[in-house]
């Protein structure tokens, strides 16, 4: 089954094509560009590029897998809107995966902290044991996270947030992956894809309110 994978939960804009079968997952094409301010400009061309590289058309897709965050409001919304609109247009199922889970799975065995940059001097984080999440996701300052994982037996950290705040977290940081890998995202959804499970609503994990919010109400006009 041919699956499109997208993730825009971090500064990395990711698009990939994967073949999902009973024997496993095979990546056919992938693109990644890192630019925190250009998610909207980068994702559509990346999707077109992976389809072209694989010699496929949108109508050849059987499903779409999207990283649902956590991530900053604007960037995360780009990937999810793209995935949802394509799924609806093509009448194929969409499946969501926590983007931190992809980092945790790709990190391998042991107890690992996965962290991405949440801005405002905070990180999105979750802890994993052998790729399985044991706590999180949450958003907090690196100092608070360091205190929380101290009693969890975490021995290493992974992700761009871990690199950014390595000195505060006080953990060895793995060089890779820094961003949610497409292969791990689709692997986490492979069982649902193969079972042809009903498509899911792609609900974003914002974990906090966006920087810009609508006014609570109209101010009275004084005359």
Automatic annotation (TrEMBL):
Domain Gcp-like as annotated: residue spans: 36-133
GO molecular function, one term: transferase activity
InterPro entries assigned to the protein according to its UniProt record, in alphabetical order: ATPase_NBD, Gcp-like_dom, T6A_TsaB
Taxonomic superkingdom: Bacteria
Annotated Pfam families: TsaD (PF00814)
Annotated GO CC locations: cytosol
Any GO BP annotation: tRNA threonylcarbamoyladenosine modification
Entry keywords, A to Z: Transferase
The protein's name in its UniProt record: tRNA (Adenosine(37)-N6)-threonylcarbamoyltransferase complex dimerization subunit type 1 TsaB
Species, as recorded: Phytohabitans suffuscus
């Amino acid at each position: 089954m041919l699956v499109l994978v997208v993730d825009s939960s971090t500064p990395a804009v990711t698009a990939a094509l994967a073949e999902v079968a009973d024997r496993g997952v095979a990546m056919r094409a992938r693109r990644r560009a890192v630019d925190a301010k250009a998610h909207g400009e980068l994702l559509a061309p990346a999707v077109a590029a992976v389809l072209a590289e694989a010699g496929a058309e949108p109508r050849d897709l059987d499903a779409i897998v999207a990283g649902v965050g956590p991530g900053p409001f604007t960037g995360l919304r780009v990937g999810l809107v793209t995935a949802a609109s394509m799924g609806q247009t093509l009448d194929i199922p969409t499946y969501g995966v926590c983007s931190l889970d992809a980092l945790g799975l790709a990190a391998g065995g042991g107890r690992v902290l996965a962290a991405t940059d949440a801005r405002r001097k905070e990180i999105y984080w979750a802890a994993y044991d052998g790729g399985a999440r044991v706590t999180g996701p949450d958003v907090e300052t690196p100092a608070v996270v360091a205190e929380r994982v101290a009693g969890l037996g975490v021995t290493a950290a992974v992700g761009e947030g871990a690199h950014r705040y390595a000195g505060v977290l006080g953990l060895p940081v793995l060089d890779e992956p820094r961003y949610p890998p497409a292969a791990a995202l689709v692997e986490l959804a492979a069982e649902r894809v193969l079972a042809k499970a009903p498509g899911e609503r792609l609900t974003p994990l914002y974990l906090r309110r966006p920087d810009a919010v609508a006014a609570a109400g109209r101010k009275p006009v004084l005359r």
